[in-house]
Amino acid sequence: DADVTQTPRNRITKTGKRIMLECSQTKGHDRMYWYRQDPGLGLRLIYYSFDVKDINKGEISDGYSVSRQAQAKFSLSLESAIPNQTALYFCATSDLGTNYGYTFGSGTRLTVV
Amino acid sequence: AQSVTQPDIHITVSEGASLELRCNYSYGATPYLFWYVQSPGQGLQLLLKYFSGDTLVQGIKGFEAEFKRSQSSFNLRKPSVHWSDAAEYFCAVGPSGGYNKLIFGAGTRLAVHP
Question: Are A86 and A112 in contact (CB under 8 A)?
Fold first, then answer.
């Protein structure tokens, strides 16, 4: 099993619908992140969480919300999806220790029509 | 403001040729620097990272990168490219110590001709 698992892998939804993207990890990391990737823009941070009780907005949090249900689970919700939220979404985890690199999930490709 | 610039959106090289991908950063303090690779349909994989010490760092898959503080650069190099290196490459910067949110560049897409 992958260290960081994102579900679903692909999703097509209609404008105005609520949708949740889920992320679970087996790394035992405290820190979890949601990024979106758009062509030519790289990865932009949506929300991040340094532990279960700590949730922080990133640079593009408008239109999104998150829930950290447990150390291993971090969900991203689009309350009312709009077409410009069509993107590739990545969940990542990291450790407080000396290894500051992220471990990424395989991504969720979301299309809002 | 903190930022990462990857000046080259697309690069095409021939198999066996050398490669250099550029990365410049703007950061107020001593940064931690990373290169990630994204193969088609995959998540991002860490190639290498720089925290301190020797400014030339070795990574996986035969890649290396050199930190040049005076130029605010962290360019990625490989002496001989393989067709399997075709992917998108991201440079990222984060704060030294403490909370480690990474800021990513826009990416460079590498194509390899046979």
Answer: yes
